[in-house]
Amino acid sequence: xxxxxxxxxxxxxxxxxxxxxxxxxxxxxxxxxxxxxxxxxxxxxxxxxxxxxxxxxxxxxxxxxxxxxxxxxxxxxxxxxxxxxxxxxxxxxxxxxxxxxxxxxxxxxxxxxxxxxxxxxxxxxxxxxxxxxxxxxxxxxxxxxxxxxxxxxxxxxxxxxxxxxxxxxxxxxxxxxxxxxxxxxxxxxxxxxxxxxxxxxxxxxxxxxxxxxxxxxxxxxxxxxxxxxxxxxxxxxxxxxxxxxxxxxxxxxxxxxxxxxxxxxxxxxxxxxxxxxxxxxxxxxxxxxxxx
Length: 292
Hints:
Number of domains: 1
Shape: globular
CATH class: Alpha Beta
Number of strands: 8
CATH superfamily: Alpha/Beta hydrolase fold, catalytic domain
Helix content: 25-40%
Number of helices: 11
CATH topology: Rossmann fold
Strand order of the largest sheet: 1-2-4-3-5-6-7-8
Order of helices and strands: EEEHHEHEHHEHHHEHEHH
């Protein structure tokens, strides 16, 4: 987007837009090119994008790891293109791994996601072909779609006004110093041409005669037997999902480590340093153990 300023002003993060699988794809990269690859997936709220979700955390991760943070299809500076014949997870995961192929990253990667991005990491584990390419997953307030809280419905609509966007961000984050920068950056992406249509299209009401019954979603049952290392970060004051979802998820992923932070839904935005400390400890333990 012309004139757009990244939340992070550090020179260690590079912004690139390339055509991946015939679709314009914006992504941020940084860190040592021979470092362990860590992929960051942003939230799915209005105006979500790599810099909006990870702008203050990405430079911290890039001090040690090779970081890649794409704008998911329909979001940010990536193509406003979505598929309505498959789940919202499936086509974005396919596109993500096409990007990694394009970048020559064939070894297993560590996936880190917030909210919808966190759900993507968990859903990737249910696909055996993708699971082979995943070294670990970290989900921050992303449950894979289960255990939804009452307030989740309150962030679904957006009227294009700064006031409404601030209401949405207040569900995501407790009070924090960089809120004005977050709102400015998120508003630019939230009002980008095509974003509104991509967000609303999956919720289009279909005429009764054209409705098709969807098969039952096996999640989270289809995580049973998955042994991939996982970190589940839950916000103590997150009202968008049920309290204790991380413990519930451990019933299906008993190897997962659960951490509860003193935060709302997106501590990666409001508490980037503290959040990275938690993730860094998890990833460092894995990479030192030869599991990267």
